[in-house]
Amino acid sequence: xxxxxxxxxxxxxxxxxxxxxxxxxxxxxxxxxxxxxxxxxxxxxxxxxxxxxxxxxxxxxxxxxxxxxxxxxxxxxxxxxxxxxxxxxxxxxxxxxxxxxxxxxxxxxxxxxxxxxxxxxxxxxxxxxxxxxxxxxxxxxxxxxxxxxxxxxxxxxxxxxxxxxxxxxxxxxxxxxxxxxxxxxxxxxxxxxxxxxxxxxxxxxxxxxxxxxxxxxxxxxxxxxxxxxxxxxxxxxxxxxxxx
Length: 244
Ligand code: ADE
What we know:
Blueprint: E1 2-8, H1 21-28, E2 32-38, E3 51-52, E4 62-63, H2 65-79, E5 90-99, H3 102-110, E6 113-118, E7 123-124, H4 126-131, E8 135-138, H5 148-159, H6 172-179, E9 192-193, E10 196-197, H7 207-225, H8 227-243
Parallel strand pairs: 1-2, 1-6, 4-7, 5-6, 5-8
Antiparallel strand pairs: 3-4, 9-10
Helix pairs in contact: 3-5, 7-8
This protein binds adenine.
């Protein structure tokens, strides 16, 4: 079973949104498993401290390597009772990480699951990142107050791709992304709403014309909103036509 193990200082945030809708139903039906570890349980001093001031000075606090190291080792040991060995990738949610992509989500979904460490404070002692092989992952170029919401986003993106979770709705969204284009606009009844009609081509019944219109709209939106994706699309298109 695909298993997400989350390490956090705020275990009460989970399952949160992962407990409702598609992901929640799949969790209840046993399509995936979630366990949550409170990093603070691995503090040993009387104040149960999990952070300390940065070596070299500066603002903020740094998550301690010893406490987080013990939390990670305990999670691996617990999981090894279910899996022969915990071979899951260990991710550290961080704005400094490699940006998450749909391709990475697909690769994670195809594996046994993931261990997700949620950072807080200014950062995490670099030694535990290296020693426990944590791979830093970012969900975008903005700074959240901690890794928890990022971990939820990653888990949600993976879980919806698990076999049977989306059922027949397995949507065109991924296909569209796989193509490297954004999705075309959608419409449904009523035919006329606040004076705005559904584009005529969509009610024409001409499936060839409809496909061509959708493709043109997808290309227009990608060019307008995502010059990075559009440039990559054009590069692929040109090298593809050279080869063909
Ligand atoms: N933690 C704080 N900001 C983050 C981001 N953008 N992605 C992943 N984890 C984060």
